[in-house]
Amino acid sequence: MNRPAHALNPAANPRNALNFSGGPGVLPAAVLQQVQESIASVPGVGLSILGISHRSDWFAAVVAELEDNIRSLLGLPADYHVLFLQGGATQQFSMLPMALLAGRKHAADYLHTGYWSGKALPEASRVGPVRVAWSGAAEGFRRLPTDDELHFDADAPYLHYVSNETVEGLQFHRMLGRDDVPRICDMSSDFLSAPGDYSRFDMIYAHAQKNIGPAGVTVVVLRDALLKAAPDNLPGFLDYRAQIAAHSILNTPPVFAIYVVLLVTRWLRDQVGGLAAMDRLNRAKAALLYQTLDSSDGFYKGHAAVADRSLMNAVFRLETPCLEAEFLGAAQAAGFSGLGGHRSIGGIRASLYNGLGLDAVEKLVEFMDGFRQKHR
Ligand SMILES: *Cc1c(COP(=O)(O)O)cnc(C)c1O
Fold first, then answer.
1. Which positions does the record annotate as the modified residue N6-(pyridoxal phosphate)lysine (predicted)?
2. 347 C-beta neighbours (distance < 10 Å), count
């Protein structure tokens, strides 16, 4: 049987290196290589990662190391819990208001800046009062609010926003909110992409499958004091305190996904050199792509206002849907994957997550320049 070389070596899979998918996103080849080995046998254990008990000492150590790695990458003090939960970011849309909003008189402040913050809103409204502090819906989610447009309620139980709107390619390049109101952020698509003042957030959640691992696990970091008034009648599985007490092993957790996230955090720390180095690389990738849009004489039209452009997801359009289809077909034939825009808005989206190399973006912009020359 003739198998391609990369069947045994993910690092040599040229198509995977050009995967610009919005999610699940590309993972670093060095991590995929270790994942592949772990399917056969985890070093030091001698069992497949797919068959190791979540009650083993080995897995308890995996969880403990991953908690530490995330705390240290984010610079969080010891009063933050780090949880590995199931149900994706979508479950956090409900789990969070169940703990912090149920039975409250004052509304929580929510920003409506795009597709994903728009999914969080109705879930919170089902549980308690919500105020939309700003909405970009009328303008088609092409920009984020300025400070002058934002007035946060001092009595709100919390502020919720999405740091990076994955679908529209909009990213906040500053911190929002007031320091006397708990600040809660969905960072699913830019988690661990850059350094920041993360201890000013009371809670951050991010599923793994955009930037830090496979689908199946969601990282939640939260300050212990945040839960002091949480109701006592929550279902155990949906109660952060029960998950904290169990160190994320309340029931059978996604052992494989958690292990891959551990490998990604080791890679971030040891191979990349930490979040500042990751940020430099992410900025270089985004600069190259946006420069290509900006120097295309309007052939490629960016969706997001320049000041709010995402470093993670570059969303753009061509003159007609027909030309976009031709672009996507040619890109596919040239070895690129995952460039189709989200089904809700169409167009093109190039996702530049941590695992994507600068060389992949260099190849993409070369392809884009060539396509433009042919069609101008
Ligand atoms: C993809 C995405 C989600 C949805 O996550 P699921 O894990 O599929 O529930 C939520 N928020 C943001 C910012 C996302 O990018």
1. 210
2. 19
Q: Convert the pLDDT of each residue in 229-261 to its tens digit.
A: 999 999 999 999 999 999 999 999 999 999 999
Tell me the CATH number of domain 39-270, given options 2.60.40.1120, 3.40.50.2300, 3.40.640.10, 1.10.443.10. 3.40.640.10
Separation between Cα atoms, residue 1 and residue 123, nearest integer Å: 51
Ligand 1 centre from 47 Cα, in Å? 32
Report strand pairing: 108-112 vs 130-135: parallel
How far does the centroid of ligand 1 lie from the alpha carbon of residue 160, in Å? 14
Which atom of ligand 1 is nearest to 215's Cα? Answer: 7
The hierarchical CATH code for the domain 274-375 is 3.90.1150.10
**Contact between residue 85 and residue 91 where contact means Cβ atoms under 8 Å apart:** yes
User: Could you give the residue range(s) of every CATH 3.90.1150.10 domain in the chain?
Assistant: 274-375
pTM over 0.90: yes
Short-list 225, 219, 193, CA closest to 205: 219
Give the C-alpha separation, 258 to 320, whole Å. 42
